[in-house]
From TrEMBL:
Its cofactor is heme. Gene3D superfamilies: Cytochrome P450. This is unspecific monooxygenase. Keywords: Endoplasmic reticulum, Heme, Iron, Membrane, Metal-binding, Microsome, Monooxygenase, Oxidoreductase. The lineage of its organism: Eukaryota, Metazoa, Chordata, Craniata, Vertebrata.
Length: 396
């Protein structure tokens, strides 16, 4: 059955808006410019949901930009459009990607030496490579085995999409679990591609620098670290009461982020000077009474034995393998010993309550591309502070 031809024939009898029953489910068909424009443009909000496609829902679990609904779709679409803009969509940088791939395409076609060939694979590979350069940072060589495998799986999935059996499965979803058929090829190939992307995400996690996002996956991971705090706030506190200190024990990731901020910026890198109150032999050195002593707190907070990759912002420095908060004796932003800051308790209370209250109510948006933000603290005498910056506080 050709659905396009069928819809055209039915519209001649029933007009530009008519109802069909696909299985037991009524489906309204819009035919022609006027009906389509009036629904999808003039009443865009009302018609913005995604209809049920059970095979796709089984593959995606209702996630992603194409087959999700509600807030998941809105948030995913907003993030996708923002990230594509950050990566240069519509700007010269994206044009450069396409131009480079166009030259690779020309060179690949040149290799045919004017002989007859089926250009389907080469022509399909070029746009896939542009997308790959955005998502994975790098393009593939047209002979790369991983690339060949991915293209083979994608092409098989496209063929399955055009089969009548897939239309039957979407109409009668009970068949998906109990009958063999091409829908299983679609689900199997989707899982293979998904696992490949998950491996790439894992590789990106290991080399991620939140200050210099390289591609779409990096932005996705960074977004996850921003929203993970808000998800914890939503789960533990919700929107209808103010955060309290009793919440901190149930919010290990948020606590880890706040600790990592203090470690990363090392607000008082050398602290205030100390003085020995008596003659003392210290590590085989004699230090006379009254001698000034400076303790480099920064050297403790950036010790790579305790904090792997200390120059990178990573809340994982304060989380164990199970995601529980992990205390560290090296955490000395308030100094240590008899002269530890008397206001430590108050400061830690303010940090937790201020941060959670802000992220409970706002999404934070910088004015410039994140890679152009340099978070390196500016050391000024006894203190360090972040460089000047501006943010937009978008109500949630």
């Amino acid at each position: 059955m050709d659905p396009v031809l069928s819809f055209t024939n039915l519209s001649k009898v029933y007009g530009p808006v008519f109802t069909l029953y696909l299985g037991r489910k009524p489906t309204v068909v819009l035919h022609g410019y006027e009906a389509v424009k009036e629904a999808l443009v003039d009443h865009g909000d009302a018609f913005s949901g995604r209809g049920s496609l059970p095979v796709f829902e089984r593959a995606t679990n209702g996630m992603g930009i194409a087959f999700s609904n509600g807030n998941i779709w809105k948030d995913t679409r907003r993030f996708t459009l923002m990230t594509l803009r950050n990566l240069g969509m519509g700007k010269r940088s994206t044009e450069n990607h396409v131009q480079e791939e166009a030259q690779c395409l020309v060179e690949e076609l040149r290799k045919t030496n004017g002989s007859p060939c089926d250009p389907t694979f080469i022509l399909g590979s070029a746009p896939c490579n542009v997308i790959s350069s955005i998502i994975f940072q790098n393009r593939f060589d047209y002979k790369d085995q991983d690339f060949l495998n991915l293209m083979e799986k994608l092409n098989e999935m496209i063929k399955v999409l055009s089969t009548r059996w897939l239309q039957v499965c979407n109409t009668f979803p009970a068949l998906i679990d109990y009958f063999p058929g091409t829908h299983n090829i679609f689900l199997k190939n989707f899982a293979i591609i998904k696992n490949y992307i998950l491996e790439k995400i894992k590789e990106h996690e290991e080399s991620l620098d939140v200050t210099i996002p390289r591609d779409f996956i990096d932005y996705f991971l960074i977004k996850g670290k921003q929203t993970k705090v808000q998800e914890e706030i939503e789960r533990v506190i919700g929107r209808h009461r103010s955060p309290g200190m009793q919440d901190r024990n149930h919010m290990p990731y948020t606590d880890a982020v706040i600790h990592e901020v203090q470690r990363f910026i090392h607000l008082a890198p050398i602290g205030l000077p100390h003085k020995v109150t008596c003659d003392i032999k210290f590590r085989n050195y004699f230090i006379p009474k009254g001698t000034t002593v400076i303790a480099s707190l920064s050297s403790v907070l950036h010790d790579n034995k305790e904090f792997p990759n200390p120059e990178k912002f990573d809340p994982g420095h304060f989380l164990d393998e199970n995601g529980n908060f992990k205390k560290s004796n090296y955490f000395m932003p308030f100094s240590a010993g008899k002269r530890i800051c008397a206001g430590e308790g108050l400061a830690r209370m303010q940090l937790f309550l201020f941060v959670t209250s802000i992220l409970q109510n706002f999404n934070l948006k910088p004015l410039v591309h994140p890679k152009d933000i340099d978070p390196t603290p500016v050391v000024n005498g006894f203190t360090s502070k972040p460089p000047a910056f501006q943010l937009c506080f978008i109500p949630v």
